[in-house]
């Protein structure tokens, strides 16, 4: 068996309305609705898949090995790649102006990725990201 890409990723929500508002209306993903299911096909693919230990996610977000008890423990993470590094802070400012709370502010991680993260209505850890190596690959 040879896996060649991530075929799809979908959040699962008991109450999909807040998720629709976030992904379609705030993040402006080109989602189409059919039979009460929102999706987009042939959306440019994932550049990364991983298994991230919760303690490592906590270190990245909070500088601690423990996830804060007052926040839901995420079961997954997804990062939306933006077109340039300045766009990360612009997106964060827009979302904050509309009431979104972030688990951490925009910052550059030790591996070079600029990212700010928040928790979605379903408990997904979401990053707004600029990873230079993705864009270097696209240009080269």
Task: Report the mean per-residue pLDDT as an integer.
Answer: 88
**Strand order across the largest sheet:** 3-6-5-4
Radius of gyration: 15 Å
Could you say which overall geometry the principal axes of the C-alpha atoms support? globular
Give the distance, in angstroms, between the N- and C-terminal Cα atoms. Answer: 29 Å
Report on the biggest sheet: 4 strands, mixed
Strand and helix order: HEEHEHEEEH
Low-confidence stretches: none
Helix and strand composition category:
alpha+beta
Number of strands: 6
> Which CATH class of the domain at 51-139 is shown?
Alpha Beta
Structure, explained:
There is one protein chain. The protein has 140 residues and is α+β, with helices and mostly antiparallel strands. It has a domain at 51-139: Roll (2,3-Dihydroxybiphenyl 1,2-Dioxygenase, domain 1), CATH 3.10.180.10. Helices cover 29% and strands 20% of the residues. The chain is built from four helices and six strands, in the order αββαβαβββα. The chain has helices spanning 16-26, 54-62, 85-97, 132-139, and strands at 32-34, 37-39, 77-81, 104-108, 114-119, 125-130. Strands 3-6-5-4 form a four-stranded mixed sheet. The protein has a two-stranded antiparallel ribbon with strand order 1-2. It is globular, with a radius of gyration of 15 Å. The protein starts with 15 loop residues before the first helix and ends with a helix. 16% of the residues are buried. The model has no long low-confidence stretch (mean pLDDT 88).
């Amino acid at each position: 068996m040879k896996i060649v890409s991530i075929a799809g990723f979908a959040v699962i929500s008991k109450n999909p309305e807040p998720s629709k508002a976030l992904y379609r209306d705030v993040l402006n993903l080109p989602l189409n609705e059919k039979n009460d299911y929102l999706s987009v096909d042939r959306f440019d693919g994932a550049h990364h898949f991983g298994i991230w230990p919760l303690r490592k996610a906590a270190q990245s977000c909070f500088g601690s090995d423990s996830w804060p008890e007052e926040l839901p423990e995420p079961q997954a993470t997804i990062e939306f790649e933006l077109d340039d590094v300045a766009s990360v802070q612009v997106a964060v400012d827009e979302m904050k102006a509309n009431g979104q709370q972030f688990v951490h502010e925009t910052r550059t991680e030790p591996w070079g990725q600029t990212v700010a993260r928040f928790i979605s209505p379903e408990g997904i850890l979401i990053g707004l990201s600029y990873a230079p190596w993705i864009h270097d690959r696209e240009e080269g």
